Amino acid sequence: MKYTYYGQSCFLLEAAGKKLLFDPFISHNPLAKHINIKSIEADYILVSHGHGDHVADLVELAKQTQATVIAMPEITDWASKQGVEKVHGMNFGKFTFDWGAVRMVPATHSSGLPDGSYGGNPAGFVLEVDGKQIYFAGDTGLTIEMKVLADIYNLDYAILPIGGNYTMDVDDALIATKYFDCDKVIGVHYNTFPVIEIDTKVAVDKFEREKKTLLLPEIGETINL
């Protein structure tokens, strides 16, 4: 399984012969100006909520790739009205695709769309694919509901926001890993804006002291999971 980071909370998972793109925000991110979105391929695009820093490139990339958009019904309806042809609306539940299973789980955040319309509930995703279980929290604060995941899954990786202000910070993310019992974390949603800038070395060291791993790939970098 491969993970490619595109900045903010946007990344690509390549697994089970499919390319799964999450929260596409690339062309509007100055830190990702070296990424050519015309070269991005995707079979599915998963969207955690409707904020611009998660959907700015959604319509363009969905049309370019002919990917199926997986998101709350309010977001898939919004995308459909802009000409996106393939959508799969979900809410807090589980669905099995031909490549693996997806469960939408709650996130503590908000979810307005760029045009001001309602974006449904903010969410995260747990994926079961290629023999691995991966949790992407979306934009969320620390919440006790994360403990439920430990009753359902044996998570291999957790992809967590660590920038603070709008979401969990590094300390909260560490607490979260204890809630759902996962020692391998990939950090997202940090350093894009001044209010979410962090000291990455301090962050990695905090995880190491707890005998956990925090991976912070560079924008455009691909790592193997």
UniProtKB/TrEMBL annotation:
Residues covered by the Metallo-beta-lactamase domain: 7-189
SUPFAM superfamilies with a match to the protein in the record: Metallo-hydrolase/oxidoreductase
Entry keyword set: Hydrolase
Superkingdom to which the source organism belongs: Bacteria
GO molecular function per UniProt: hydrolase activity
Family matches, as SMART domains: Lactamase_B
Pfam families named in the record: Lactamase_B_2
Keyword Hydrolase: yes
Keyword Transferase part of the UniProt annotation: no
InterPro entries, alphabetized: Metallo-B-lactamas (IPR001279), RibonucZ/Hydroxyglut_hydro (IPR036866), UPF0173 (IPR022877), UPF0173_UPF0282_UlaG_hydrolase (IPR050114)
HAMAP family, per the entry: UPF0173
Record family assignment: Belongs to the UPF0173 family.
Protein name: UPF0173 metal-dependent hydrolase GCM10022289_21770
Species whose genome carries this gene: Pedobacter jeongneungensis
